[in-house]
Design brief:
Layout (H helix, E strand, L loop, with lengths): L1 H10 L8 E7 L1 H8 L12 H15 L8 E7 L4 H11 L4 E6 L5 H6 L2 H8 L3 E6 L15 E5 L4 H13 L5 E8 L10 H6 L12 E8 L3 H12 L3 E5 L5 H7 L2 H8 L4 E4 L1
Parallel strand pairs: 1-2, 3-4, 5-6, 5-8, 6-7, 8-9
Helix pairs in contact: 4-6, 9-11
Amino acid sequence: TSKTALRWAAGLRAIGPCDLLVTQVAWPFGEHVRLGIPTPMPLDRLRPEIHEPLVRDLRAWAGDLPGEGETTFTVSPGWGRVDVHLAQLAAEAKADLLVVGTHQRAGVARLWQGSVSRGVLHHASCNVACLPRAEIAEDEDAIPTFRRLLVPTDFSPLANRAISVGYGLVAPGGVVHLLHVVTHKPGEDDPDPTERLRALIPHGAAARGITTEFEVAKEEDACNGIWHAAGRLGVDAICMATHGRSGASRIVLGSQAQEVVQRARRPVVLVP
């Protein structure tokens, strides 16, 4: 619904020059957890290591917005109701029109899940346009292209199996982020993880124009390290190996892949 609202607003540029302020209200606590950023947590602003990835992702989500006019992207912290924050941002920007999407919920669904668009209509001091999702749906069948891929490995033969698959998924000219999560205090004699990652680059990656970037993160849990890195790097997908356990073995031993799938906001490709 938000993408529908954005496209409709950008379509106003067919009438004449139109400045667009594309904004997101982010819950600071949730973003700190998602990106693995430690406290302190400011109440009135977002820390740069949170604000910059969010603006980057917002730009990528919006895509190219043709037409005449300036386009500005902002991400603001919000601790309360999103509709109130949106109305306040529109007032501060002296916007002529606030455009939001609407799920058109009714009855019990509206009571249970709430409605941002309904709240915006109540609180906004400017004109409001509410766009239902059905207005535009031409890109729902579009084939996604993976330009940036995250491939985690613990250097085991099993985990390394996902590396060649990951390079095969990335479009020519894309980027593969090879990640190793350090979950213990490294010893003096431990080999350099960056050099170990460098040795895992498949032959032929350079010929396809694929760039490799090396990421070494320190986390108590590998799953958290993968999840946080995916958010910070803004990758299109995650490719990782899985033991393919089932039944009692999955309950007893757990599954990092399963945890990543449950938490990730992007596609996860699992290599058995």
